[in-house]
């Protein structure tokens, strides 16, 4: 999805708001000018996540912030999920449709997004949402097609999004493996610290029991032009791809890639709520035609 005026306005507003928490008026003004130059100098066909590494560099340049500035939030998120993973697994096991229940919790986990939901992520809210996860409903036909593809496929590539959320993804993937043991499952994380996205370290912390590769990039999404060889090989082999999170949708959707991708996320910005005609934080599952 190419960046548009709505995306630029959103990124400007969110980052200026964040910058004001870290510096004085002159620092914020200088930061804002650099931010605007970045947009003016960008290639024409990029999506919003493309800018994350550059914006991170601007926070370091102007305010001395660490490139891994969400490290504390990531640690808290992983701990939150680990403390509840047994409870969630039990709720899945007690469900009539265990695959669907595991998916509902996985898509709920997409709430843990400190960048898109700036200032809105609260773990007491997430605790309450856990009790309502089974009320999360997506298009039935699309989920039925996903179930069919999982039952007949040989290789599943799971593109992850945020730290903490990856623990919910573990529960879903374990249920997939239990029901469809013929599937070889591979997890893909980011190439290094970027926002609060999951890395190899986060995958290890939450105990992902499947092979883990990284996308070779600090862009919080899946930009094929910057993908690692491991990721390109996994994409080529995959019969089914689950792309979690809005950033994976932003970077892959509408690019004509030809893969069998199911995008699963909570709609968090006006561009997605308009496109899918749904309220903010509504669950979305959509399959892109090959």
Short summary of the structure?
With 290 residues, the protein is of the alpha/beta class.
Descriptive keywords:
10% strand; alpha/beta; 290 residues; six-stranded mixed β-sheet
How would you describe what is shown here?
A six-stranded mixed sheet has the order 3-2-1-4-5-6, with helices on both faces. With 290 residues, it is an alpha/beta fold. The chain is 49% helix and 10% strand. It is built from twelve helices and six strands.
* Average pLDDT: 92
- Beta-strand portion reads 5-15%
Q: Helicity range of the residues?
A: 40-55%
So how many helices?
Answer: 12
* Structure summary, number of beta strands: 6
Query: How is the largest sheet built, in terms of strand order?
Result: 3-2-1-4-5-6
Shape: globular
Distance N terminus to C terminus? 16 Å
Structural class category: alpha/beta
Give the helix/strand layout.
Layout: H1 5-19, H2 25-40, H3 52-63, H4 71-93, H5 98-108, H6 123-130, H7 140-152, E1 155-159, H8 165-179, E2 184-189, H9 200-205, E3 212-214, H10 229-237, E4 240-244, H11 246-252, E5 261-266, H12 270-275, E6 283-287
Parallel strand pairs: 1-2, 1-4, 2-3, 4-5
Antiparallel strand pairs: 5-6
